[in-house]
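Let's do one together. I've listed all components of the complex below, 551 residues spread over three lines.
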Amino acid sequence: MTTAGSAGPEELRIAADEDVVRVRQAVRNCAQRVRLSLVDQTKVVTAASELARNTLIHGGGGLARVEEVVDGRRRGVRASFHDEGPGIPDLTLALADGWSSGSGLGLGLSGSRRLVDVFELDTEPGGGTTVTVVKWTR
Amino acid sequence: MERVPILKIGGILLVSIQVDLHDQSVLALQEDLAEKISATGAHGVVIDISAVDIVDSFIGRMFATIASLSRLFDADTVVVGMRPAVAITLVELGLTLDGVRTALDLERGMEILRGLGVGTGATFDARDA
Amino acid sequence: MTADAEPVHRLAGLLRANGDTLVRRWVDTAVEELRGRSTGQELERDFREFYTALTPVVEETARGGAADLGELKSLLEEYSRTRVKQGFTPSETAVSVFSLKRVVFELTESDDDPKLFREVLAFSSLLDGLGLFTFEIYARAREEIINEQSEQLLELTTPVVKIWEGVLAVPLVGTLDSARTQVVMEKLLEALIETGSDQAIIDITGVLAVDTQVAQHLLKTVVAARLMGAECVVSGIRPQIAQTIVALGIEFGDIVTKASLADALRHALRREGVDVVRQAGRTG
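Okay, and this is what the predicted structure of the assembly comes out as:
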């Protein structure tokens, strides 16, 4: 898998509410560039919205990185979210449906995992969290 | 922060969401609606999302909250115009919006509220009878 | 990039000096291999172009540099794709590349300069690589054709029809796989909006088998339609499929199911407020 495309990776700071909206728009633009179907665009944008909000609320803000990726003949969108927050102490619990440490419905992590093709989570208690997702063209 | 306008048509409040909502606007809309329902004594709320291209769990939860809120004031809520891609995504996300009524478009949403005995005001009831 | 400056690269020099003869012999050999399925004129243009692009690559390789195969590959890609469309087998396409080796061997076999021998060896493996590349292109082109056809088939086999004002029906036939179910379901949801229908009947009378994933897609569609304000009825569940659904432990929950499409239609019409009454005096 390599990064490619005319537009390079886009980095966005997540520090406030409107940044979540900006991340959504960046992911939407990228998804349109690689020609994801409308349903797949909507899925990856929704996942990004959930993850960006997690970064803001649970991670105390952080950084989003949105880019095009290529693997053979498939193209895709990769979005990663990084924060220096407290990390996730119990991953199994955090990835279970309905579990929430904040005010959400607890669908953020588990739900967004179902919306994408690749979901990687890297976290350490006290050492921040990085979530990377990829959605490929069908 | 943008505030979503709330229109009053007879006894029904119409909220048409035309912008990409931030979380703060979502919370503000919930507050505004609660105030407006209690102030106007409206008996129905229609939320038109035909222009909305993403609904995440936060926005989805707003629909459920508005529905429960309005029920406290004896008003019914109908969410109308959800796009197919949005509906598919919500199902995949695991959000089924239990307790929220839905309709294909604004017209049918209004019809549902009328069918539930929610008039658009006395004039309407008289003419319809 | 000239061979003169570095006279040690003998093969490159030979290729340049004997260009015309080699191309002509190459064409003849290929025509013979293809047993007249291509004429010399057809091949000559392609081969000459390829040969022109090949010579600098051979020079560069002999000099020990990393040659850029981009142009050669794009020429070969075009050539292979045309061949696929004309119905040539992948071997026939690859043979056109390999037969250049034979022609070059014939030119150099009487020479016993070991340096030239090594160059010919390198040249040979370069052509081997390019010949295999035509196989890859062939496979890729075939795959594209198959994908295109299966997409067309999908369109043909999954009609979404309006059977009453406000009522859509999707008769599903054959074997449902997960990808196809997904496409059909997206199409159905789009059609609800386009036709302003708030009822849909998914008829699976013609479906031979369902697996967990397919059943899940059906369920998700019904839920998605509900979110949009439409109701779906699933009709025509055959006994074996009903058994599968129960055995797989799939909860159909409060989804309305009907034995036949006719029952489902009657149900839908009732919900539309339409009464179907047989006229008195007519029996049938």
